[in-house]
Every structure is written in structure tokens, then in C-alpha cells.
Specification:
Length: 231
């Protein structure tokens, strides 16, 4: 698998190790130990995926994540400290697609990178036999072009947000549990079930769509069951 990967971590040993494993898989890696230099580079060059450590001096990974997400939609994986649940939630809220907790196995990170890239770059291939365009109350979701508009205005969705919304659209009228959504998005043995992850992405989707939790027009929460888009 090919692709340009941005890796940013002020711990040189970790950055170099991650770079080595990714390059062995055929990726082109652009590594930085300084988040400000990484930000300057990210402003000029579009990557296929970014791996960002949260705890860095100066500009931290969350700020760098926000900076990238304001400009690009490619996947972002955050590296977080063990037990730093608030950092994970903040990262997902800012638009990150996944997180890996330190210490981690390099092969685990490589697997997650590949999973994110498969969805980002090959989503149209996996859905070729499915309906390609969905319409719902001004929402238009095009699986072939990976574009989404709401009332004729483009919605800038992360790959994870797009995948979740596409699953709900494909199964419109039926309830999809958080666990089902999780496995639809992350088809990988390294992932553990975490309903909070889905909850954060659903909340982010609602914010972008201007949807209401109390009186939803698009994504409805069915307590104890999951989420649905009314048929």
C-alpha cells in the first residue's frame, strides 16, 4: 500500500521507530520532532494520513489536529498517553479519526494506518455494488465521489464521519447499534468496542449538519439500541 504519511512526535525514538515500520510497508513518511515545523509543512503539502502525538511542547497535537482538519479531510490518528481519556475525546471532537495509546506495538499502528487509508482511498471500490447516491431531506451523500451536501451546501466530513453517515443512510429506517457502527467503521482485530468513540463522532456529525439532539431531523438516538435515520 502506498501513501504519504505525516508523523509528528517530539520523542525521537518513537518517531524513528514508527517511520521505519511504515517505510517497510511502502509508505513515504515525512517525520517531524517539532510540531511547529510540522504545521508549516502541513500547510503547504497535503498528505494521505497524519499520525500526531498529543503531548508535545509548544503547539500540541490537538492544536495541530485542528489546524490540519480546517484544511484537509485525510485521516488523522492521535497518539495518547495511557489513561488520558479526555485527550482521546478532545482529539475525536476536533476531527481525529482514531487514537493509539502509548506504549503501543508498531504493528498495531501500521494496521490502523492501513485500515484508515482503505476507507479514505478505496471506499468507492468497496461500495461499487451498492447504491451510490442517497437523498434525505436535503442531504445528498455520494459514495462514488465521496462527497456530501446539505441543502446544496458542501459538508466537510472526515473519512470516519462519512463512513458512519453512509452506514446509517444505507440502512435508513432501521436502528444501527453503536457496536455495529464501530465494526462497520473499524474492521480490524486490534480495535476494542468503545461506544464513546461512536458517540463523539455522532455528536460531531450533528454539529456539522445543524441537527438537534432533542428534535433530530436526520440522526435519531434510540435509547438503549443505537442510531437511525428515519425512512
Amino acid at each position: 500500500m502506498e501513501g504519504k504519511i505525516l508523523v509528528v512526535d517530539d520523542e525521537k525514538e518513537i518517531t524513528d521507530l514508527v517511520t521505519l515500520y511504515l517505510e517497510n510497508e511502502g509508505f513515504q513518511v515525512f517525520k517531524f520532532y517539532d510540531s511547529r515545523k510540522a504545521m508549516n509543512y502541513a500547510e503547504k503539502e497535503e498528505m494521505d494520513l497524519a499520525v500526531l502525538d498529543i503531548m508535545m511542547p509548544g503547539i500540541d497535537g490537538l492544536e495541530l489536529c485542528r489546524f490540519i482538519r480546517e484544511r484537509y479531510t485525510y485521516p488523522i490518528i492521535m497518539l495518547t498517553a495511557k489513561g488520558a481519556e479526555i485527550d482521546k475525546i478532545n482529539g475525536l471532537t476536533l476531527g481525529a479519526d482514531d487514537y493509539v495509546t502509548k506504549p503501543f506495538l508498531p504493528l498495531e499502528l501500521v494496521a490502523r494506518v492501513k485500515a484508515q487509508l482503505r476507507r479514505y482511498k478505496q471506499y468507492d471500490k468497496s461500495s461499487a455494488k451498492q447504491e451510490e447516491v442517497f437523498f434525505h431531506k436535503g442531504l445528498v451523500l455520494n459514495l462514488r465521489t465521496h462527497e456530501c451536501t446539505l441543502n446544496e451546501k458542501p459538508l466537510s466530513l472526515t473519512p470516519t464521519e462519512f463512513t458512519i453517515l453512509s452506514v446509517l443512510c444505507r440502512r435508513k429506517g432501521t436502528v444501527v447499534s453503536a457496536e455495529e457502527l464501530f465494526h462497520e467503521v473499524w474492521k480490524d482485530e486490534y480495535y476494542q468496542k468503545n461506544n464513546n468513540t461512536i458517540t463523539v463522532h455522532i455528536r460531531h456529525l450533528r454539529e456539522k449538519m445543524g441537527d438537534s439532539f432533542e428534535k433530530p431531523k436526520y440522526i435519531k438516538t434510540v435509547w438503549g439500541c443505537g442510531y437511525k435515520i428515519e425512512g
